[in-house]
Amino acid sequence: MSADEGTPSSPSKPVETPPVHVLKPKPAPVAVPPFADAKGRHVAAPDFGGVAIADTHAHLDMLDEPGFALANSARAGVAFVATVADPSEDAARTYTDLERWLTEADALLAKDALADVAEQVPAPRVRIIVGVHPHNAKEFSAEVEEAMRLMIADPRTSAIGEIGLDYFYDHSPRDVQRAAFEAQLRLAHEFELPVVIHLREAHDDGLRILRAVGVPSAGCILHCYNLGPALLERFVEIGCTVSFAGPVSFKKSTDVREAAALVPAGRVLTETDCPFMAPEPFRGRTNEPAFTVFTAAAIAEARGESLPEFAAAAWEAALALLDRERS
Ligand SMILES: [Zn+2]
Ligand SMILES: [Zn+2]
Q1: How far apart are alpha carbons 205 and 197 in whole angstroms?
Q2: Model confidence over 238-297: pLDDT tens digits?
Q3: Which ligand is located closest to the Cα atom of residue 276?
Q4: In a domain, 120, yes or no
Q5: Is this prediction's pTM over 0.85?
Q6: Which CATH number is 230's domain given?
Q7: Ligand 2: centre distance to CA 273 (Å)
């Protein structure tokens, strides 16, 4: 619109018809940010002073409506999402459907803007973490590795994971888990990508293998850390970045908060691991990337940092590790 169009018209000019959009039915209200507790009561979002948040570990393919979740993510200020895809399951779906999920998210965000609910924000930047989960280690084969190599070649792939050991569930024999972990750790070295590690009741073996094969120079993320400070120090010493999910916000997780306070600045990440383990005050509900803001607030508080200060460091650490195309 030019400046002239804003000047009052003379009485002789015909009266302009009102803009068409006022005649349209009122659009359904959209909550921004979309937070309400189990009883439907509004929950105030933490204020990060405009600093963006990153969800460094999501399983978008496990959500009912990934496009809707990505729109919510953008509304909440979670502007970067790294989603996990397992080539022994249906990782191919993430690669084929991601563009559609993002288009759906953009369309929903455009609707918000049309309804004057919010200024239009873009859908989050999404990157893919590819790897065979320790549960599926018995499925790791030459064919799966071949498929994985093709996925790694996709520029949206930014890390190898989640790989590691899970001796709690033992869904695959432990020696098979160790072999798949080692092989994929070597792939990370070969492609100069960071690794995202899942360890459950297997930290000694995990550490031993990381030391033997070497921590990839592109980085190593210990994801969903939910234990105390003692164990954490051993991973920090070998150069791991530590990512915290919902458990850091749980009332009884004092030890996890103590651990979060000890990680050196710039080496803490925020994640959801959605759809699992929603943070307080949404514990027990389906988790989604938007909820990362509550986890981020809990970590900042545990570390005694201001929300914007912590968010800026966590954002920088996330993108430095997981945004492969970043120049
Ligand atoms: Zn995991
Ligand atoms: Zn996960």
Answers
A1: 12
A2: 999 999 999 999 999 999 999 999 999 999 999 999 999 999 999 989 999 999 999 999
A3: 2
A4: yes
A5: yes
A6: 3.20.20.140
A7: 5
